[in-house]
Amino acid sequence: MTKQQRIILFLICAFLFVISAVAVIFYSQGFRLDLKNRRIAQTGAFYFKVLPKNAQIFLDGKLKKRTDFLFSSALIENLLARKYRVEIKKEGYFTWEKTLEAKEKEATEAKNIILIKKNPNLAALADGIDQFFFSPDEKKMVLLENTRGNEGNWELKLYDLKLNIKSHLIKSSDIAKGGADFIDLDFSPDSKTILLKVGLKEKDSHYLIDLENTPTNLSALDFLGKNIEKIVFQPKGSKKLFFLNQGKMGEADLSQRKTSTIPVGTILDFAVFDGGVYYLESTGHLYQTDFAFASKNKLNETSLSVLPETKYEIKVLSDSLFVKEENKLYLLDAENKKFNNLLDKNNFLKISPDSEKIVYASDFEIWILFLKEQLNQPQKKKGEKMFLTRFSEPIEDIFWLNSHYLIFSIKGKIKIAEIDDRDRINIVDLAEFKEPTMHFNQPSKKFYVLSEGKLLSSESLW
Q1: Which band of pLDDT confidence, cut at 50, 70 and 90, is reported for residue 450?
Q2: What are phi and psi of 11, to 5 degrees?
């Protein structure tokens, strides 16, 4: 090889080395050749966190990765900036599918994905059930059994969810020999006491059932007076109650069976929350006070237009205050001290487990109100209202599955929907029943459904 040939070969190798070194440096910094757009571009990434573990992730129909066993997450890097059809699959579960965009020098995240089991197994818990009621601690429920097919003859039973044991509480003949009409029941905040409302001799009567005593202790609340409109336990214990009687608010001491009148105006409704009492006066003003009613704080300067013979209900959810006027829903604007109309036909209003979101719904539409700024993708501002979806059939019931998914029923079909509104909303049909009543138990991740007198429980949904 001549000297000139050696020089030419050296220059070629040097040139190739420089080109390769530059290419390696650019590649390591995330630059790729975008043939479609004929340019060099920096890449992006997808980050997924999925339950259950060991799920498969497909991009545009090609398997790219599995979520890891430890954190159930996956990072897919070096993606050209464009939209990808993402599918996340696991055998025996519904597929999660969405079109997401990878952006240059950014990681697009979907960190709250749940894959729901297809056809979850259902176990029969009880038969001949009219209604069921869950305790606040989600550890037990009360079953209403209609023993002879008429409203005046019924029995209440306590079902321990941990032990799967059903035990007798009371029957209607314990209240009156001829029976009594069951109206409603409610638990105390500590889940130790039940407030029972029945119809007796053409009037409503109230009783307390102490769940810690064996046999069950049933005590009448007849000392409260007649025409009791509402009774609420004090959160710090079940030895004291607040009640509403013909627009007058009172306090009851259960240990002494004595009542006292609270010196406030005519009350349309009240609510107890987080150590305080909220009450709406007939003037259309909402007030906040402590349990001693030592001082009061007017929350709205612009009064709510109160309609005669109309039912009003206060809802306190986290830091947000709502007033329901029949089916119309108002939200308090704390800064401007006035109520804003949120929805004209509201049927459901429930707060998420993380207390950062509220779902509210009309007959056919589901909306989400964000109480706090959402920093995770998709990001939302505090106070932002998001329309989720609309149906042609009425929504019958709705619960939070967790803080990012909803479970609800429509015309007997139980559905689950995410609240990630990027691209399509993932909605799955879980099961179908005739006129179901439903409850989702978050600790066990099971749903309970009552249909045609039969109470069923699912296995864990993921």
Answers
A1: very high
A2: -65, -40
Give the model confidence (pLDDT) of 335-359 as tens digits. 999 999 999 999 999 999 999 999 9
- Do the strands 107-114 and 44-51 form a parallel or antiparallel pair, or are they unpaired? parallel
What one-character DSSP code corresponds to residue 191?
S
- Residue appearing with tokens 């107890």: 272
Nearest in space to 141 (alpha carbons), one of 186, 174, 81: 186
Judge whether 204 and 183 are in contact, CB under 8 Å. Answer: yes
Q: What is the DSSP string of 274-302?
A: TTEEEEEETTS-EEEEETT---EEE--SS
In order, the DSSP letters of 326-345 are TTEEEEEETTTTEEEEEESS
CA distance 201 to 194: 22
* Cβ pair 283, 268 in contact under 8 A: no
CA angle 438, 443, 447 (to 5 degrees): 20
User: Per 3-state DSSP, what percentage of the chain is helix, strand, and coil (rounded to 5)?
Assistant: 5, 50, 40
What is the model's pTM? 0.89
| Nearest CA among 156, 128, 133, 126 for reference residue 457 | 126
Q: Cis before residue 52, ω within 30 degrees of 0? A: yes
